């Protein structure tokens, strides 16, 4: 066990030492997480940022889980893709098969911060942080991904949008994406708006998935929006499938996305400004996803 010194802090609670445990297996990790005040530690970026900002640290024990075998790797079956919670974002962004089948997910992972940070951040840690502006959860929500959650003596699945229901002692084991059938016309895309540059949280981020039938009509359309209250929010676009993916459909999807979400004002923009950006970046994401579904060159 290692004691971490997290430096000066504004409260007495934050000055308490934090103990680091290294789990060798999923079973070990779940046993260690059963300890009161224990939380899982992925790549450690979130914890480091909290220390740097001198925010109070409530966890008394961190359980390092990023390198345990049960959380590693990307597995492909006939009907699903299973991404371990310990997989780093850089590995997701650079995975050739994932970029081909689910570009929205690879693009979101590749848009996070800097290359150095992406080599540290784990997928599970990024999701479990429950930050509405994080990129991968938005893309995964649009793709219909589900989480495998483990706790002491139990296992359950839940949509990415319900990660807030994680309880003490639980951790994300993996993320599961559906496979498309051979020949399916499915396209996806991720778009985000940054006010200043790469080293900041998104002002607006949008993931879109478009599936076309043989005639070129929209069979399925999914849009998820982040950086909004309760995000990521999957927008109800139930009336749009059955139409051709033309400019009118794209404009309607953009309008519905802006109407269905509640952005908040912060240093990146007012709520009213963000609503305009949600519409614009939904338009971009849906347009690109539709082009890819139709076999366009933009991949």
TrEMBL record:
SUPFAM superfamilies: CO dehydrogenase flavoprotein C-terminal domain-like (SSF55447), FAD-binding/transporter-associated domain-like (SSF56176). Coiled coil: none annotated. InterPro entries: CO_DH_flav_C, CO_DH_flav_C_dom_sf, Diverse_Substr_Oxidored, FAD-bd_PCMH, FAD-bd_PCMH-like_sf, FAD-bd_PCMH_sub2, Mopterin_DH_FAD-bd. Transmembrane segments: none annotated. Keywords: FAD, Flavoprotein, Oxidoreductase. This is Carbon-monoxide dehydrogenase medium subunit/xanthine dehydrogenase small subunit. Residues 13-182 form the FAD-binding PCMH-type domain. GO terms for molecular function: FAD binding; oxidoreductase activity. It comes from Actinacidiphila yanglinensis. PANTHER family: XANTHINE DEHYDROGENASE SUBUNIT C-RELATED (PTHR42659:SF2). The lineage of its organism: Bacteria, Bacillati, Actinomycetota, Actinomycetes, Kitasatosporales.
